[in-house]
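> tool_call: predict_assembly(chains=three)
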Amino acid sequence: MTRTRTRTVRLTAALVGLVVFSAIPFIAAAAGYATVVDVATRILIYAIAAVSLDLIIGYGAMVSFGHAMFFSLGGYTVAIIAHHTFGGGPMWGWSGTNAALVVWPLALLACALLAVVVGALALRTRGVQFIMITLAFAQMIFFVLVSLQAYGGDDGLLIDRRNELPLIDLGQPRTFYFLCFGLLVLWTLVCTSVVNSRFGLVLQALRQSERRTINLGIRPLPFRLMAFVVSAVGTGLAGVLWANYARFVSPDMAAWTKSGEFMAIVILGGLGTLLGPIVGTAVYLALEQVLTSWTEHWMIVMGPILTMIALFGRKGMTGRLFGQNNND
Amino acid sequence: MLLLVEQLLNGLQYGAMLFMLASGLTLIFGIMGVINLTHGAFYMIGAYSAAFAVLGTGSFLVGALSALVGAGLYAVLVELAVIQWLYRRDHLYQVLATLGLILFTNEAVSILFGRKPPLMDIPPFLRGSVGLLPGLDYPVIRLAFIAIGALVAIGLWGLVNHTRLGMLIRAGADDREMVDALGVDIRRLYTLVFGLGGVLCGLAGVMAAPLLAIEIGMGERVLITTFVVIVIGGVGSIRGALVGALLVGMVDSLGRAYLPQALQLLLPASVADTLGAGLVSASIYVLMALVLLVRPLGLLPARA
Amino acid sequence: MTSSPSTPDGEPVLEITGLRKSFGAVLATDDVTLTVRAGELHALIGPNGAGKSTLITQICGELAPNAGSILFAGQDITRLPAYARARLGLGRSFQMTQLCPDFSALDNVMLSIEARHGGSFNVIVNPRRNSPLRQAAREWLDRVGLAGRDDHPVSALGHGEQRQLEIAVALARDPQLLLLDEPMAGMGPEESAALTRLLGELKGRYAILLVEHDMEAVFTLADRVSVLVYGRIIFTGTVAEVRAHPEVRAAYLGEELPC
């Protein structure tokens, strides 16, 4: 497909998506299916993580098997601050706050810092070593979370109430839904800008021909690290929103199976498309929803589905449609 | 001092088990280029098969055989159904495909055998302890583990270096086309190697069954550790797997014994308490990160 | 078609001294000393297996030598990583085309222009919307004879066109030294002639180290020629000197040496 045609397809799909997602809460209310908003909110949140992961796997060719660590860090920052704000006693003298405008940037900053440390070390390796070292870091975070008895350890931590934003009430499902929606749209636009930018040109060149790019005088590490950090912040944002949505965090958020889930979603949706993973998230979570309501043993279906996605999913559901790795 | 010896022996025993798992995994990755997450599932199948066979027949020998056969057969099945399509694919897809297999296997086992974890007693001839040093009695079964691990190491060394199969394995690692040109069916070779890996997992499973909890998630727990072992040791190298297994076994065992106290000395009490347990579990990952930073390809990579 | 013998007296851009590289018992690079001066087109020829590739990878920084030194514009780059050498102005084209296959021809050249400053961290500006950049890239494509192929993805280009793009990418980087690794490999006679003309135009503007098997091009273009046999430079001189040299003729025994 030529450039302009894929561009038209992408824009059309994006518009359709915008309309559909905007309409969901109203349709659900009218039809009486309140839980649809719930599922849709989860889709929006996971989609933010999926888009972030596509940035580095699809465009940067960095297969991180540890992204769940950022998801969990975002969530736990919210949970821990909430814990100390509402009855847990002060944290190093600070009595906490429930203002999203303070808590959320803090959480994202934490993720960025973790990403700089992990990335600076892990990005010295390639291929399977990179996969394993990102997994190792995520496991470290997982075990640390499990051992935090003060914050629930294995059982996880409940969150009193959602963070507060001025003027709007995040306790309302519909309001929270639209916030997640807005953030997903915003974040997708940010990621799109990144991949189409001068920075993105270099990042994608490193994916396609590292040797050529190096021989032009470009040092790979800083570019990959930056992409890794951006991706981590996005995943952390998803974690922040999840903590607010579920009002509960647990070490499972850092489990390697969670990282695997994110990977599956991105592949299912279509690597290197940014929009594809959003579709992938919708399909995956909807599937999960349907299967869990059928049977307690839904994994026995989900497992082979993941395997088949991997075996047949080279371009994902939308790769051909949205022009894999194409820009604009 | 005696505690140290005991911990060293524990480390050796854990290392022996890790070696049985890691050697198969490193062969599979080194020769076939596949990241096989299902390796942990084979181990679990081995343990479950052994436990239920023993429950049914009362004979440990039957149990052991069931473990080897069960795990080996399942491995071959998995190879024929799924793995063979993954050889030339990106690692990303291998990870995902085998992750799906794990989820499937776990659920299938829980449906077939129920969620209640089975128990397997230590067979009579392996019960009791032996006095190794004055004041140190060490369980026979753990010593048996160590002995079997050593036998497996010697056996594998002999296989890889002194048999035709071993030569094909080494050749297949370097040059697929050459092996093909020798008139060897590379597909059969791969299936065989995969099956061998499965059998080794089954062996680890039957040895672990009396000592550790047999439950659905046991494969995953040991799988990550096994990957840490082969990454530290160097992917594709059996010698690396041995060194990595022993190193990880020791670090884990000694870490659990001495790290909490060391942390109490080095860090303020509250921090040591909260983070101590986590850091102890994470010690092998720290080890791996350190090794990779100094030697990105592992300690004894197959190809320098 | 002979080239007039000249002794270039420009500043040395590339100075290789006593370079050695062995792989176990095999001595791939044996005490190689070679200088390329500003404005000079210095050809490196030699039979297959002479060690030309090994030498190039050492010059570019992808392989570390066992002994010897490499100076670039007076600076010692022997221990410098590949990207740093490229930053200093060491440009290169590859024998096996190394292009970004998902990008268009224009994208590849734009990348090269961006790389002049080591790549940009700007996450907002889309280079494809940048008119001056596109225009500059287009000019390079025109220069090598790829006018009108701007937006074609690399996979849609023929082999010869890809080789031309290789050159364009190397040129767009605006290097001080151009290391061309068998640029005419796999090209037909017309394409080779066109490329020879292009290189003739570039002569004098850059220092060029041309590794080639195509003897016509070499004898047309080269100011000086070095002959590499079994890892050793057996002779360096003008085209006429090289043609007459008995050892060189002997080394090429059985190969066509156009008179």
